[in-house]
Amino acid sequence: xxxxxxxxxxxxxxxxxAVGCGENDPASQIDTINELMEKDFPLTEQQRSEVERLVAExxxxxxxxxxxxxxxxxxxxxxxxxxxxxxxxxxxxx
Length: 94
Hints:
mainly alpha, single chain, 94 residues
């Protein structure tokens, strides 16, 4: 399992916490990303790098006052993680 450094996640949560508290807001999306990462399914190096890039980009957008754009970027990270999770479950069932 590849984990994000705690400092990176904490910084992202702090930055996104100031943006808002809706169901699809960036802070909630970061929580979803953390929950998916805690499931400990395998990620390729490319997937890990892409998730890290998307989280960093989403955090930056949120901190500059663009929560809608941040949400779209973070949705990409969530989609990638859910795909990897589904692939891991499929591979486990074989």
